[in-house]
């Protein structure tokens, strides 16, 4: 152990990047310990094998797994290893984290999301609370993200718009697919507000980052132009350029050691050569994504923290959240179009960029009053070809092969365009969705893995069904065939938050309003873990904004 | 703006548009030309090994060629599979399972026809595959081979499948860009995790 840094950040994704940049600019010495490798634009190609079929951006499940606890047919909780099920809960272990691989659908929360309990009242079986901060507290940082990360879009005033301190987005909307016009018309006919979706994708160059080049392969892929607003491209490259921020890739932190006063004194990690090392700092920031942040804290016992760091009231890992709801899709058959329209419909590259928030709040007698609803985002089917083809080899439990498979492939690939939607509901926090340690299962470093119980509240399904019925009508109105959908309580592993909720009461929260641990004076958590409720949108913009907000608090503390 | 490949975005969009138009129907003549030009190519020595001869024949049964459909040989299915499973970064379990499966297949062929799989007629080979997929292990084995065939059909040509984008053309699939260089394949990138 040599140098003592001002701040040590564990994890380099959307929760770590804003803190690193803000504090490095202010002249503080920062070190980031990142478990994954440091890839850059020169390493990202539109290669489905690398992105999605081999463990390039995520660990091998045989070496690092999660234990997922779900109910069996008798309603008992049963844990299964992801190395057995193949259900991967890793989202991107590389410098910049999973923000490298996001689609960048960027939505702010709305003022009501910060006071869910006050606004909608309690729901039996759910741990709904108000946030300790308001929308107004976070708004300046949402705006800051628009310029720092780079958010493109076109603001339209509408009944569900959240207040903004700036008039419009700093970057114009990315180029849109012709199907967006058809969507607008259908929404108009149905008396719905077609909302342009803001994207964390540059529509023109910013510094060293080029504009989007519209390859059509965005979500799940690293961005080779730098247009996608990953923590790495948008923030960390700048942080490193200050000379005050050092990134150590391939360093896996297994414990935060604390002293007799309860303060964190070191981050203990395995380096690239699998040697145990430690780093000292005045202040530590955990941002490993929700599940792994809780896991690290629970693993970090110390004299004042016998049950894990910041866990003296047993709250670490509790109230895990997912941004879920369901999905649907419909086909637009080329055979029903003239050749020119079909060619237009086949366009690859531009984005749909449309969503609906007409049911963000639902006031319907069906629910016995006003309840929280969700967002619906519309997008073209993911262009990944191999996964589409490999799915085609099955017909139920039967294998399809030979000429039958080839005929099926030809039809799937060439007969229609597919528009889909994803519903984001406000996943209710419950006692059945949390992270704990599984002492019986170790990762390749010998550390207990995270066990994740993935229970959901039935209310989420009811809200999902309500929104889904209405979303399907949009596709039908557009003329889509074979409109189908699925609503389930299965958590999308890539949209996760909670586990270290912030709040005023140490008995029911892990962090205070500044995202500092109630019982550890030099420990902050700045990924999505802090969220006590998730809103009805993907989390990334809120994580970025909050991390910029907390960075300002840390700056004050350090000064 | 010029991207790393030296092609302007406008030009690239135009090319993609052209690709979309040209690929509406994969021309049988292109496939015939390709097959003609490949007849003089010398096959790699490893493909002469019995196990690989069997694998290549199974692949052709699972993904047969037709006048206007690229078959397993056209898409380089054996070349791709060899590169994929002989790769030191690959999952060795797949290699072992695939090799073991050829033994089971020959055993079954011997039981039914007293000949090895590659000595059977097309119809007999189909019957053996149909019987193979009735068992769980057999279904898993064929499923794994199909996965690798479909990867070969649609992979970046740098992986030695999908030569000249033949699979993309057949399925009118517009690939993304940039495409990976030989030193940026998944196994090269994977070594950066080590």
Q: If you had to describe this structure to a student in words, what would you say it looks like?
A:
The complex is a heterodimer of chains A (559) and B (194). In chain A, a hairpin with a 5-residue loop joins strand 3 (67-71) and strand 4. Chain A contains 13 helices and 23 strands. By secondary structure, chain A is an alpha+beta fold. Helices cover 25% and strands 23% of the residues of chain A. The mean pLDDT of chain A is 97. In chain A, strands 1, 2, 6, 7, 8, 9 and 23 form a seven-stranded mixed β-sheet that branches. A six-stranded antiparallel β-sheet of chain A has the order 5-12-15-18-11-21, with helices on both faces. Chain B is an all-alpha fold. Chain B contains nine helices and no strands. Chain B has helices at 9-22, 28-38, 50-62, 77-85, 92-113, 122-132, 136-154, 166-170, 186-190. Mean pLDDT of chain B is 87; it is low at 1-24. At the A-B interface, helix 2, helix 10, strand 17 and helix 11 of A face helix 1, helix 7 and helix 9 of B.
Quick rundown:
With 559 residues, chain A is an alpha+beta fold. Chain A is built from 13 helices and 23 strands. The mean pLDDT of chain A is 97.
């Amino acid at each position: 152990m040599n140098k003592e840094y001002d701040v040590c950040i564990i994890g380099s994704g959307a929760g770590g990047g804003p803190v690193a940049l803000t504090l490095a600019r202010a002249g503080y010495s920062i070190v980031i310990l990142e478990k994954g490798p440091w890839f850059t634009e020169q390493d990202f190609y539109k290669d489905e094998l690398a992105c999605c079929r081999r463990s390039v951006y995520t660990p091998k499940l045989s070496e690092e797994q999660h234990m997922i606890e779900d109910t069996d047919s008798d309603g008992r909780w049963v844990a299964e290893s992801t190395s057995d099920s193949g259900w991967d809960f890793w989202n991107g272990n590389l410098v910049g984290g999973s923000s490298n691989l996001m689609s960048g659908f960027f939505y702010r929360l709305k003022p009501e999301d910060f006071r869910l309990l006050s606004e909608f009242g309690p729901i039996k079986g759910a741990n709904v609370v108000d946030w300790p901060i308001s929308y107004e507290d976070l708004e300046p940082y949402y705006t800051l993200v628009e310029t720092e990360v780079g958010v493109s879009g076109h603001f339209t005033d509408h009944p569900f718009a959240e207040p903004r301190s700036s008039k419009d987005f700093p970057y114009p909307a990315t180029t849109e697919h012709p199907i967006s016009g058809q969507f607008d018309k259908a929404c108009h006919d149905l008396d719905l507000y077609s909302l342009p979706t803001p994207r964390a994708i540059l529509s023109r160059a910013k510094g060293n980052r080029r504009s989007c080049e519209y390859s059509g392969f965005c979500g799940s892929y690293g961005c080779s132009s730098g247009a996608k607003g990953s923590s790495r491209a948008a923030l960390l490259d700048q942080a490193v350029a200050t000379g005050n921020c050092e990134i150590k890739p391939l360093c896996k932190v297994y414990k935060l050691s604390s002293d007799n006063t309860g303060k964190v004194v070191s981050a203990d990690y395995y380096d690239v050569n699998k040697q145990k090392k430690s780093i000292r700092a005045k202040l530590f920031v955990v941002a490993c994504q929700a599940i792994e942040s809780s896991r690290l804290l629970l693993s970090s016992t110390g004299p004042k923290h016998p049950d894990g760091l910041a866990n003296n009231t047993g709250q670490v890992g509790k109230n895990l959240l997912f941004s879920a709801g369901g999905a649907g899709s419909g086909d637009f058959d080329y055979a029903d179009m003239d050749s020119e329209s079909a060619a237009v419909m086949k366009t690859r590259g531009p984005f749909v960029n449309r969503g609906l928030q007409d049911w963000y709040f639902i006031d319907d007698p069906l629910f016995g009053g006003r309840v929280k609803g969700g967002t619906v985002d519309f997008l073209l089917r993911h262009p990944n070809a191999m996964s589409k083809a490999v799915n085609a080899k099955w017909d139920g439990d039967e294998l399809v092969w030979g000429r039958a498979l080839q005929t099926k492939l030809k039809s799937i690939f060439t007969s229609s365009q597919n528009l889909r939607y994803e519903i984001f509901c406000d996943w209710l926090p419950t006692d059945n969705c949390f992270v704990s340690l599984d002492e019986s299962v170790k990762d390749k470093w010998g550390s207990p893995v995270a066990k994740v119980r993935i229970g959901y509240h039935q209310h989420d399904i009811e809200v999902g069904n309500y929104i889904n019925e209405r979303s399907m009508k949009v596709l039908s109105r557009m003329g889509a065939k074979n409109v189908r959908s699925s609503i389930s309580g299965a958590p999308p592993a890539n949209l996760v938050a909670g586990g270290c909720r912030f709040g005023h009461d140490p008995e029911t929260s892990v962090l205070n309003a500044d995202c500092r641990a109630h019982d550890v004076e030099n420990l902050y958590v700045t990924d999505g873990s802090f969220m006590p409720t998730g809103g009805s949108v993907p989390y990334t913009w809120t994580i970025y904004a909050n991390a910029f907000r907390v960075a300002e608090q840390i700056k004050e503390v350090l000064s | 703006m010029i991207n790393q490949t030296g092609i302007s975005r406008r030009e690239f969009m135009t090319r993609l548009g052209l690709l979309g138009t040209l690929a509406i129907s994969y021309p049988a003549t292109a496939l015939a030309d390709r097959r003609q030009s490949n007849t003089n190519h010398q096959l790699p020595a490893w493909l002469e090994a019995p196990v690989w001869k069997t694998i290549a024949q199974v692949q052709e049964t699972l993904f047969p060629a037709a006048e206007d459909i690229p078959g397993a040989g056209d898409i380089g299915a054996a070349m791709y599979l060899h590169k994929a499973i002989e790769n030191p970064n690959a999952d060795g379990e797949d290699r072992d399972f695939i090799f073991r499966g050829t033994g089971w297949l020959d055993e079954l062929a011997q039981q039914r026809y007293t000949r090895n799989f590659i000595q059977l007629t097309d119809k007999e080979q189909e019957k053996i595959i149909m019987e193979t997929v009735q068992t769980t292990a057999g279904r898993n084995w064929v499923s794994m081979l199909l996965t690798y065939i479909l990867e070969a059909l649609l992979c970046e040509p740098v992986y030695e499948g999908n030569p000249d984008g033949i699979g993309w053309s057949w399925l009118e699939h517009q690939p993304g860009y940039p495409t990976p260089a030989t030193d940026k394949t998944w196994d090269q990138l994977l070594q950066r995790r080590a």
